[in-house]
Structures are given as structure tokens and as C-alpha cells.
Amino acid sequence: MAIWDYANPTRFLRLVEIILPWLIAACAAAFAVGLYKSFFMAPEDYQQGDTVRIMFIHVPAAWLAMMCYSIMAISSLGTLVWKHPLADVSAKAAAPIGAALTFTCLVTGALWGKPMWGTYWVWDARLTSVLVLFIMYLGLMALWRTMEDPIKAGKAAAILTLVGALNLPIIKFSVDWWNTLHQPASVIRLDGPTIHPDMLVPLLVMALAFTLLFFVLHLMAMRNEVLRRRVRAMRMRAASVAAPATARATAQPAE
Amino acid sequence: MDPFDLGPHAGFIVASYIVTFGTMAALIVWVLVDRARQLAALKELEEQGIARASARRDKS
């Protein structure tokens, strides 16, 4: 079945109804296992002590913040190139989730930074580029709200999203290109992860849990957006029916 | 290892988890409230006799 078969919103809503309960169950199970492993199985770090447990939420939030923007960029291509009817629905629904994940990443990073670096914040390349990502999310959410017509808003937001995607490689490679307080990549590396499996496994389980939570929220928000557009279409239909009747009434000569 | 003894920086660890799960809970509440609002608006319009164009095509 091709992606165009889900261009029909009614078919998409039916598919969401089937998938969602399974995704929610898998997400809850992954969080239960991930949190158990994070607090009961993972050892303290020899330098950082227990603060390493912040990694189990900070790193997945950072990964998902970037993945969410990547999905928005692909959706934007879908809007501009293939004109898929659900592409801008997907991009619009993802933006608040991405903003929340980026916010989580920034706050947990600051709370991890204070005891380890001695400061909540430094204006280095990694932290600043993630802050730019957060501002991009907020800007896109504001842009969607400024335009009444969702099709026009979707096209404008798609262009801005694709321009903002230039920030993704900057975030990823900022720790390699510049001297920063932030540590370099220790999981996604060409020569393999440098984290001990006792910490890597809980991290990957938590990353899976956050990924499932993202897809649950994204599908639910997309479903809401489809319903919102139905409401808008029906209100416009009601207004167009009422308008000629009003015009006829006002056009009749006074007796 | 005692999971309830988080060392001298326990406040930072607990605050991180509270912020994360608080934010995720807020997102879940937001999508559920939004869905309820859209469904209520759809129901109100349907009660006024306004149908979607595609729904009318399905009936005919």
C-alpha cells in the first residue's frame, strides 16, 4: 500500500484508531523497563556519580528534538514537492512536540551542567545551536497561527522549516567543529559507542520509550489537526450557505 | 545500589525527571483537551445540520 493511499484523511484516521492502542502499550512498557534499568540496574559513573542518571532523559530528549525537526523537514518536502495532503498536517502537529522535547533537553542539560561544569549555561556552539532549534520551533508555531488559511500557512512554514534544517548538522557536529564544554558524541560514532553496556542498554531503552511517546503524541496531534480542518471546512460551508440568504434578504425593496 | 540515595546532587536529578515528565504530561493533556474541543465543535455543527462535502458524497 503506497503512502498516497493515506492521502485520504478518513482512511488515515481509521489507521490511527488501530495503531494507537498498540503504540501506547509499547510506550508504557518501554518506559517501565527503561526507568527500572536507569535507577536499579545502571551503576553510578566513576566521575559523575548519580548525576549520570540525568543522561537517560537528557540524551533521548536531544535525539528526539532533532528527529522531530527532521520529520518536519521531510514533511515540508512532501508539502512543497509532492503536495501530499497530510504532509503539512504532520509538520504542524510535530512542532509543539519538538518544542517541548527541545525545552526538556535544554533544562535537563542545564541541571546536569551545574553540578558537573559549575554552570547552568555557556554560550558554546552545542548549547547555542540547540537554543536556536528551540526558537525555530516557536517561530514555526507562531507562523502557523498568523495565517488563517492552513494551506498557505503550510507552504510558508515548509519553506522556513527547510531553511532551519541547516541547523541540524550544525547541532550534530558542533562538538567536533568547535571547542565546547559539551562532551563529543559517545553513542552514535563510526567506531562504535564508548559507553559501557551497563549504561548503554538503559539509555537505548529510554530512547525507544521516548521515540514511541513521540509517535503516540504525533499521531494524536495529527488526528486533532485533521478534525480541526474539518471543523473549519464545515464552518465555511455554513457561512457560505448563510451569506447568499442574508444578501437576498437585504436586497429586497422596503415596503 | 540504593536507588533512593542519589548522592549530593539528588536535587538536580529529581528536578530533571520532574521537568521531563511534567512537560510530557502537559503534552498529553494538551492533545487530549484539543481532541475533546474538536469533537465538541464537530458535534455542534452536525446538530445544526451542517455536513461535510465528503460525507454528503458518501450518502449519495
UniProtKB/TrEMBL annotation, chain A:
GO terms for cellular component: plasma membrane
Domain of life of the organism encoding this protein: Bacteria
Subcellular location, principal: membrane
Example GO molecular function: heme binding
Subcellular location: Cell inner membrane; Membrane
Keyword terms of this UniProt record: Cell inner membrane, Cell membrane, Cytochrome c-type biogenesis, Membrane, Transmembrane, Transmembrane helix, Transport
Transmembrane segments: 12-36, 56-82, 94-113, 125-144, 156-175, 199-222
GO process terms (BP): cytochrome complex assembly
Matching InterPro entries: Cyt_c_assembly (IPR002541), Cyt_c_biogenesis_CcmC (IPR003557), Cyt_c_biogenesis_CcsA/CcmC (IPR045062)
Membrane topology: Multi-pass membrane protein
Domain Cytochrome c assembly protein as annotated: residue spans: 4-182
Function: Required for the export of heme to the periplasm for the biogenesis of c-type cytochromes.
Family: Belongs to the CcmC/CycZ/HelC family.
Name of the protein in question: Heme exporter protein C
Record organism: Roseibium aquae
From TrEMBL, chain B:
Gene Ontology CC: one annotated term: plasma membrane
Subcellular location: Cell inner membrane
Transmembrane segments: 12-33
Highest rank taxon of the organism: Bacteria
Keyword terms, alphabetized: Cell inner membrane, Cell membrane, Cytochrome c-type biogenesis, Membrane, Transmembrane, Transmembrane helix, Transport
Membrane topology type: Single-pass membrane protein
Keyword Transport: yes
GO process annotations (BP): cytochrome complex assembly; heme transport
InterPro entries noted in UniProt: Haem_export_protD_CcmD (IPR007078)
Family from the record: Belongs to the CcmD/CycX/HelD family.
Alphabetical list of NCBIfam families matching this protein: cytochro_ccmD
Function: Required for the export of heme to the periplasm for the biogenesis of c-type cytochromes.
Protein name from the UniProt record: Heme exporter protein D
Species for this entry: Roseibium aquae
